[in-house]
Amino acid sequence: MKKIIYIFILTASFLLNTTNIMAASLTASLSSNKSTVTVGSSVKITAKVSGSKIYIVQGNVSSNNPSVLSGGGTIYRKADLGSEPNGFSSTSKTFTFTAQKVGTATISISDTGIGLTVNDSPLSFSGKSIVINVVEKNDSSTTNNQNSNSNTNTNNNNNSNSSNSDSSKKEENKSNDNKLSSLTISKGTLSPKFSANTTSYKVDLTSDIETVDIAAKANDSKAKVTGTGKKDLVIGSQTYSVTVVSESGIKKVYSITFNVTEKPTVFTQFGDQKLGILKDVAKIEVPEGYKETTVTLEGEEIRGWKNDKTGLTLVYLADESGHKSFYIYSDGKVANKYELITIAGKKYTLLDIPSDMKEQEGLKADKVKIGDMELDGWSYEDKNHANYAVVYLMNEAGEKNLYSYEKTEGTLQKYVVSEEKKANNTLTYVLAGTTALFALSTLGVYMMYTNFKKKSIATIKDYYDRKNQG
User: Fold this and answer.
1) Which of 19, 58, 240, 413 could form a disulfide with 112 if both were Cys (CB 3.0 to 4.6 A apart)?
2) Cα dihedral 265→269→272→276 (10° resolution)
3) What InterPro entries does the database record attribute to this sequence (predicted)?
4) Could you tell me the pLDDT band of residue 296, with boundaries at 50, 70 and 90?
5) Average pLDDT, whole number, for the chain?
């Protein structure tokens, strides 16, 4: 009895071990887009291997008669266990075979024997094959009867093959033309000018234009066009697309970017210029050191920017040509345009010259060129100082000064009246004061003398009048 039990255990163990080493089964298949091809043309063969929990699989696809039909290769896939912990269930690959001469070729898929599951169990599949016939180009009867999308080794269903062939020819005859013959807009101008091969355009508009119509026409009447019609516009940048899909399904996209800038409706006068007040200032680059504030201009509360260090307040306005700039705001109006000039690495703000400073002794009003900028200033009357000029600027500390500019070296320093001029001015004032005092003194003495003379004559006259009466 013990011997029987022992034999049973050995037999069970053998069967279990045999089960463990048997390879799990995979399914392989081949399919083609046609079973008959003409010499010089090609046929596509798709190989597919299916199963469960596949970690790695490999097979060879080949022709048994490459002189008739050449091509082939390897189908291979390995699971990425990081993203595919349970492996994959199928893999496929399409191969192109070229017909070399009239004949018949069998395309086969065979296992290379490296298949494994994610559990390291072996995998394998049985070979499959498909037969492809190669005929002469003018052998239409054979082609019409045998073209099909079959994945079998025979061509028994000739009617089906003929139908598939006709369908394939219709697909091949469909147009791939997905270009526009025209693209137009109701407002503005496309930049660059429309060309069927150019797909990106820009258009600049102002905020008084709130909508635009886009029209387009396909080059091929069978192509479909979408994305045309009336489009809404807002201040800023927005892109609309027009899509063309060819008869065969190929898509091309044309895009139009509309850049809409604000058009002012309220204006303020600055000299002989009319400046427009801008409210859309969210994206402008504010000069360094300025903080946002609110100011009132022409009865409108608008955004401004103040520099606590210099005391300047700026507003952002547009001139009559549409150019936008910062302007210095003071006492409820625009004082002058905000412009900076850099001299020897330091920044200065350009200022209008006050009326009481326009006359400077020894200087004459002139235009002063510094770099690419031309400023109102003074040149020296003395020709020995021809390389010097004087300008009125504000430094980074907010101090307003006259500055002497040396043209050759491009240097700047505070303009100081010379001691000689001061002495001359002082002497002039002293002489003028002395002359005035002398004139006043002389006048006083003369008046005193005249008054005394009048009194003396009157006294003498009274004396003689009294004597004659006595």
Assistant:
1) 58
2) -30
3) Cadherin-like_domain
4) very high
5) 83
pLDDT in tens, 159-197: 555 555 555 555 568 899 999 999 999 999 999 999 999
Are the C-beta atoms of 314 and 329 separated by less than 8 Å?
yes
The three-class DSSP label of residue 37 is: strand
Q: Give the whole-angstrom CA distance, residue 179 versus residue 189.
A: 20
Counting DSSP H helices and E strands in the chain, the numbers are 4, 31
The pLDDT tens digits for 448-457 are 766 655 665 6
Least-confidence region, from 88-102, 135-149, 439-453: 135-149
One DSSP character per residue, 41-55 reads -EEEEEEEEEEEEEE
Hey, what CATH class is 180-261 in?
Answer: mainly beta
Distance CA 112, CA 110 (A): 7
From residue 151, how far is each of 170, 253, 292 by CA, in Å? 22, 38, 75
Which tens digits make up the pLDDT trace of 353-375? 998 998 998 899 999 999 888 99
The two three-digit tokens of residue 410, written as one number: 């491009």
Q: Which two tokens stand for residue 181?
A: 């013959």
Q: Computed from CA positions of residues 455, 456, 461, 463, in that sequence, does the dihedral angle turn out positive or negative?
A: positive
Please provide the CATH number assigned to the domain covering 24-173: 2.60.40.10
**Taking a C-beta distance cutoff of 8 angstroms, is the pair 218, 224 a contact?**
yes
pTM, two decimals, is 0.45
* Beta-strand runs (E) in 352-446: 363-370, 373-380, 388-394, 400-406, 411-414
462/145: higher pLDDT: 462
Share of the chain above pLDDT 70, in %: 76
The answer to whether the beta carbons of residues 329 and 304 sit under 8 Å apart is yes
Query: What distance in Å separates the CA atoms of residue 319 and residue 326, rounded to the nearest whole number?
Result: 11
d(CA 189, CA 203): 6
The two tokens of residue 257 are: 């970017």
Which two three-digit tokens encode residue 444? 């006083």
Which residue in 126, 106, 119, 112 sits closest to 50, CA to CA? 126
47-72: b or e for each residue (b if 16 or more CB lie within 10 Å)? Answer: bbbbbebbbbbbbbbbbebeebbbbb
Structure tokens at 183: 């693209």
Q: What pLDDT is recorded for position 437?
A: 58
Residue 371's nearest CA partner among 399, 396, 347, 354 is 347
User: At 395, phi and psi to the nearest 5?
Assistant: -85, 180
Single-letter residue type at 341:
I
